[in-house]
Amino acid sequence: MTGFEPDTELVSRLPLPSHVVVLVDDVWRRGWLIGREHEETGWTGMVQYEGDDGVERTERLPADRIALPESDRPTERAS
């Protein structure tokens, strides 16, 4: 998976839970946004994803490491 565009405000707009991709160890992984918090430094998201070892992980990530999967991105229609 490449070419994802994190949006620092995305975390604040998505319903919970939402399907997302997360950047972990320089790899984009499919996961779920299950919580969020606004801190002094910006939005963070509580996410769940599966690690390389097959174990589900839950952790808090900064919003700039959370993006929408390509299938969930809004598309513009030509007129």
How would you describe this structure to a colleague?
- The chain is mainly beta and 79 residues long.
- The protein has one domain (10-72): SH3 type barrels.
- It is built from one helix and five strands, in the order H-E-E-E-E-E.
- The protein has one helix at 10-13; strands spanning 18-24, 27-39, 42-50, 56-62, 66-67.
- A five-stranded antiparallel sheet has the order 4-3-2-1-5.
- Strand 2 (27-39) and strand 3 (42-50) form a beta hairpin.
- The protein is globular and about 35 Å long.
- The relative contact order is 0.28.
- Residues 54-63, 70-79 have a biased composition (Basic and acidic residues).
Task: Put the structure in a nutshell.
With 79 residues, the protein is mostly beta strands. The protein has one helix at residues 10-13; strands at 18-24, 27-39, 42-50, 56-62, 66-67. The chain has a five-stranded antiparallel sheet.
Largest sheet: 5 strands, antiparallel
Helix share, percent: under 10%
Remind me, CATH topology? SH3 type barrels
Mean of residue pLDDT values: 87
Query: What is the CA-CA span between the terminal residues?
Result: 30 Å
CATH class term: Mainly Beta
Strand fraction: over 45%
* Cα radius of gyration in angstroms: 13 Å
Biggest β-sheet: strands ordered side by side in the sheet: 4-3-2-1-5
**Integer count of domains:** 1
Query: What structural class do you assign from the helix and strand content?
Result: mainly beta
The rough form would be described as globular
Determine the number of helices (DSSP H or I, runs of at least 4 residues). Answer: 1
| Named CATH architecture | Roll
